[in-house]
Amino acid sequence: MSDWQPKRFWKQAQCEACDGGFTVKLDGRPVRTPAKAPLTLPTQAMADAIAQEWDAQQELIDPRTMPVTRGANAAIDKVRTQRNEVIGLLAEYGDSDLLCYRAAGPDGLIKRQVEAWDPMLDWAADTLGARLFVGEGVMHVRQDPQTLAKLSEEVAAFDDFALAGVHDLISLSGSLILALAVTKDAIAVDDAWALSRIDEHWQIEQWGEDEEATATEKTKKTAFCDAARFYRFSQG
Which end of the chain is more exposed for a tag (fewer CB within 10 A), N or C? Predict the structure, then answer.
């Protein structure tokens, strides 16, 4: 970001229209990304949210409280400059999707996975034309190349900003299918996160809660919800 300093140095952040979309200015000075690129945003909703994040900063700037700003920076500085690599990385999750790797036991966990994950795989088959196969344990489950190609096309269809949000939805959940379902409003964000944590929550029920693991999950869930929110902003 331009003029990045540990202390707040501006009085007011404002969203403005610009060539190519919208931007944010601090006391009339345009914000730039860490790589010094113009912060040109696709929607006014995203620009408004970023302006609000900057205005909400107190004496010291805390980037952790600026998820929309961070997402926009990632879209411009990273996704845009490495688009093909990002698409390839995310599409690979179709070949190792969390929902395809099932427990060999106990029966309660097997049943829970079937009830929670099978409907999402059915949705992918019916809506995306992508039927994924399942297996037990961690051994690789071979998928139909045509299915993987269809999923890759879904990923490639996102623009740079949408892709920045989808990146975190996929990487945090471990599931390309859950991420696509969120973007298509086939499942609520909180429900998608819960489905991605079936195994962990089963372990908690059996052995009790670990404070450190609980804190880590809370942080990841917040990031997952932030990613979904960023995706929505990218759509207007």
Answer: C
